[in-house]
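Regression test case RT-17, inverse folding.

Input:
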């Protein structure tokens, strides 16, 4: 069972220091990832008949909800919590034991597999792309704040401000 004892480890919290450069990397990477998804949506709809309906079904989950409420949850709770767990705990822990590249691939694969339950191929592929993207940023930058900013801003962009559907 995964405990929360890692939250009480001083070394865990050291990865939360950041600079203006880290913040800029987070913002720019979110915009780049949104562009990747915009292009991916176009090409996947050419390749797969099921792509558009599956993407649309992802967006249906938020229909009827207050966009401000969704944005605030994504920005301050969901994105940060996912990154603290997936990169700050899973990738970091695997990396210490097996090396950084194994951690990048393992954390990415596990993150994508966590989305299989939805039965939505496009969602799993989106998680694979995002998971790999954020895992590489974390490996390169070594700063969880950068990845939290990227994930949180991308979430708000793709689900509230500039949906791809």
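Golden output:
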């Amino acid at each position: 069972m995964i405990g929360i004892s890692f939250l009480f480890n001083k070394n865990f919290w050291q990865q939360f220091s950041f600079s203006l450069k880290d913040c800029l990397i987070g913002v720019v990477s979110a915009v780049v990832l949104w562009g990747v998804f915009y292009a991916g949506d176009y090409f996947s709809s050419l390749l797969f008949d099921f792509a558009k309906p599956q993407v649309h079904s992802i967006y249906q989950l938020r229909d009827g909800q207050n966009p401000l409420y969704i944005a605030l949850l994504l920005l301050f709770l969901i994105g940060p919590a996912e990154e603290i767990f997936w990169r700050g705990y899973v990738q970091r822990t695997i990396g210490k034991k097996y090396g950084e590249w194994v951690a990048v691939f393992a954390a990415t694969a596990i993150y994508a597999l966590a989305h299989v339950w939805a039965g939505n191929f496009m969602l799993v592929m989106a998680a694979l792309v995002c998971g790999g993207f954020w895992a590489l940023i974390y490996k390169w930058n070594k700063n969880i704040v950068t990845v939290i900013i990227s994930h949180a801003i991308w979430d708000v962009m793709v689900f509230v401000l500039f949906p791809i559907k």
